[in-house]
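Internal tracking record. Fields below are filled automatically when a chain is submitted to the structure queue. Please do not edit lines marked as system-generated. If the sequence contains nonstandard residues, flag them in the REMARKS field before resubmitting.
Queue: standard
Priority: normal
Entity type: single polypeptide chain
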Amino acid sequence: MILPLLDIAIILLFICSTIFVGFWVSSRASKDMNSYFLGGNKLKWYMLGLSNASGMFDISGTMWLVYLLFVYGLSSIYIPWLWPTFNQIFLMVFLATWLRRSGVMTGAEWIIFRFGDDRGARLSNIIVVAFALVGVIGFLAYGFIGIGKFASVFFPWKLSDDPHMNDVYYGLVMTIITTFYIIKGGMFSVVFTEVFQFIVTTVASIGVGIIAIHSVSPEMIAAVVPPGWDSIAVNWNLNVDWAGRLDAANAKIAADGYSLFAIFFMLMLFKGFLLSLAGPAPNYDMQRVLSTQSPRDAAKMSGFVTVVLMFPRYMLIAGLTVLALAFFMNDLRAMGPNVDFEQILPFVLKNYIPSGLLGLLIAGLLAAFMSNFAATVNAAPAYVVNDIYKRYINPNAEPKRYVHLSYVVSLLFIVIGVALGFFIPSVNTVLQWIVSGLYGGYTASNVLKWYWWRFNAYGYFWGMTIGIVLALSLAIPQANTALAHALNAFGFELDKIDFIYAFPWLLLICLITCVVTSLITAPSDMEVLKKFYLKVRPWGFWGPVHDLCLQEHPDLAKNTNFLRDMVNVVVGIVWQTSLVAAPIFLVIQQYDKFAIAMGVAALGALFLWKNWYRHLQDYPTDIPPEMLKGTKDEHLLAKP
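SYSTEM-GENERATED OUTPUT FOLLOWS
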């Protein structure tokens, strides 16, 4: 495709502006470690919320969501619970506040805060760093694959006769451009450029939705989709049958393993609930929570992500899907059984979006890639430099030395992530492994760390270690096949182990490891547990710790908000899902259902304002003053 001159000018202007903004703010980022990784805790919560939303508005994820809506219809609004998308609700309601109260810089540093600094805690620190870095590499490969597929459609040069390698080479070019401003600017660069990028992407997304509404009638959609495509009901079987319309879609549904939709739905909900209770993984999402000015701001930032992200993003997804259904079906049928549904997004943009808006949208989606890639990269040096180099190798170096080393680490991880992307054929493959395999090994340890006082560092270390090893085994085809064949001896008939259905087994194995190891080893130091409990004040099984703290602080109150928090979580998930469904109903012009979805969203927002927002507090009013003296939150002691 040869882009019109106007679109080329918009794209080039946008990329140059993004790089300029990144370098412009870099002087603020390079002062010290806190400035580089957390923006000096001076960034406004709404800026961080827009940044977080922009980081989630990535090309690879958008390709995946367009494919889901196209193939699965309105049932696809639940499938992102695999991630789970509603982890933002748990963060909003209580976990972001708890996490920000810790006052640490990284997830590994949080482990020291929770377990202390003995041998077990140091092992746990190292395993968190290992998990975080494996996750960074996985997400970099995920973003790299998506941008390659996207860019290869729009740029006219054929870099390889092999289509996959052609995607890879384009991904490499875009990665090099993105690397320029990521490394130099740290969190300041990430946040300021992402806010700029989010505005552009949002305008373009709403424009695509409007074009779809004006170009495609409800009758045109009904003529090509199977019955049940526009239903949000959860049935035992997925009631979307493409037979005779697009047989490759049925083959894709069977390959994904989502046909028994009720079982899949319950598994998603179970997995998503547990993974959300574990709190954010040690990646860019956690970094933004830790970057906020106060615990209340952390909660507000997490809630704001849903408000600003869902409607414009699903306007784009629905708009692209509707245009593909109306005008791209014949091309898809002509591909026979070899349809690459992840190419729907770039093909629709290429053929059906007018010049000007096309340039703006391509620029916005390139920005989305840059946002997600930048946020992911920024997490790697935080762990390598702060939790390995500074802690174990050179604790007294000049601040500038740590920042300069962060540049090197960022570049190294970009190279590793890109190299891995050479060998992965699709976005869906790496996404499924991250959300079900890697996070399956993460869940047990990270749920127990918040809610059970007797869970110790050795339990954490061995639970995470077993989980990472099993997750990596699932990712290696030969090891996956060997495990599947071994299970056949117990009556299973498997050629390979699907990531989503492996999650319960991963969870069970890791949970048993965590509990048994904790009970056969000594508990964590009680002084460490008391400090953690007094400052964070979680609910859960903390009775012995609370009783000891009560002896020193007679006015200490338990956190009795479990029921209220769980009610808010349930309402929040419904609220978030309504904000996903509403723009889809708007674009497919089912205005009655759009009105119902918006009504549910409004009622949910009102309930959350009364039952969540009005109860937010930075720290409990009975917190001992010495907990905050000398910290960056000392000024909050005077606030209610």
